[in-house]
Design a protein that fits this description.
The protein is an alpha/beta fold. It has six helices and seven strands.
């Protein structure tokens, strides 16, 4: 059983919701590409739609398997006094005389643009996370040719989120502004509609996390404004939007 922080569980739920939508879109594309064509089984568009559907199904299966690993969810009201590195701790260490800080999470996050580790969070199951697990302040170790010394270990979720969420919001707004008003013309068969639904989830995620962790974060504009704007546009395109939060189950 793998531990995961509540906000990470929400991120994983968003990914699962996106994969479900992707599969439904691919399935709809199969019927659309066949249409009234009697030779639809020999049609290149139909064959591509079939391939996309199979890939989407594989991705969904993988995501469901990954999401299902996380049964031990560390809830927002958790704030233990910690002495050793574990999921939820913020670790400050010296690396070859340079200071670095990470939050140890149940998952890692990848920057979609650069491919780098995103916003200072590494998984306890990552290579470095496994080395850090259980260590305490003052411990020294070598990792991939670098010398590490742990300078501090403390519960780091609230401070991390105060730093992370505004950047997540700015990234979401930037994606929203790239989309044009005519991008939903094809309705349910438009891949842009899928991206719009995923964007609405991102703004809902921000609202859920700031509320759950009782964070007083000032965004330039309220995330719910963007979420409602996206949902309105989806409604105009006759798209029924089910938010990822419907998948969230925490006992």
């Amino acid at each position: 059983m793998s531990k995961i922080l509540y906000f990470e569980y929400l991120l994983s739920s968003m990914d699962l919701a996106s994969r479900i939508r992707e599969l439904k879109l691919s399935e709809a594309q199969i019927g659309y590409s066949a249409g009234d064509n009697l030779d639809w089984k020999e049609d290149a568009a139909w064959e591509q739609a079939q391939r996309d559907f199979m890939v989407a199904g594989q991705r969904l299966a993988e995501t469901r398997g990954y999401h299902g690993r996380f049964r031990d969810i560390i809830k927002p009201n958790t704030a233990p006094r910690v002495l050793t590195v574990q999921v939820g701790t913020g670790v400050l260490f010296d690396v070859n005389r340079d200071k670095e800080r990470f939050l140890i999470g149940g998952t890692s996050e990848i920057d979609e643009d650069s491919g780098d580790k995103y916003h200072g969070r590494i998984s306890i199951d990552a290579s470095l996370g496994k080395v850090l697990n259980g260590k305490s302040k003052g411990d020294r170790f070598d990792f991939i040719g670098s010398n590490y010394e742990i300078l501090s270990v403390k519960w780091g979720v609230p401070s991390y989120l105060k730093w992370y969420l505004p950047r997540y919001f700015d990234s979401s707004v930037a994606r929203f502004k790239k989309m044009k008003d005519d991008t939903l013309e094809r309705g349910i068969l438009s891949s842009t509609s899928l991206r719009m639904m995923n964007l609405a989830d991102r703004f809902r995620f921000l609202e859920m996390v700031t509320s759950a962790y009782h964070l007083n974060i000032s965004f330039r504009e309220p995330p719910i404004r963007y979420e409602r704007g996206i949902v309105m546009r989806l409604s105009e395109a006759n798209l029924y939007y089910i938010p990822f939060s419907k998948l969230v189950r925490i006992d």
